[in-house]
């Protein structure tokens, strides 16, 4: 639901919750997991956020941490956290992140959808039925598509066995790694622009270190 001032609210029964309160529930659970693992109370925290978060989103995340009972030391970008967690960086305790870039509208789901479309067309050729508008059938195809996305040798043919897509009809098929790549050439090209932007912003080139 939307509040009068334009901000979002979530209604749970008769209770109206702010987004920060919803986020705090996640942080409380994470705090409990950390305490169970460490065997001690956790009070201080560094929270990561997507690099594209603006100031208000970062402040809302910090507020969620406070609601969860945490002393939020810092809010840092996820790419920065990934860099700091690299082997060797934790021992050195120093890391310099020169630039970040990305496309928030390009991710694993885009690749999944292309493969789903491929199998929808294959289903249509085999059974003469179009399931592209059948949401239940499409949902049944997503998980089998994701499983073969794990790294595999080029010669391996991961089997895709979809759940029943149209009543009693089921598609049993497979796809090679090379064929799956041929479904997404533009998506692969789309990953190059953020890399090049990050290099430009960091004033670096693609030449290997001497």
UniProtKB/TrEMBL annotation:
GO terms for molecular function: ATP binding; ATP-dependent protein folding chaperone. Keywords: ATP-binding, Nucleotide-binding. It holds the Pfam family HSP70. InterPro entries: ATPase_NBD, Hsp_70_fam. Transmembrane segments: none annotated. It comes from the Eukaryota. Belongs to the heat shock protein 70 family. This is Heat shock protein 70.
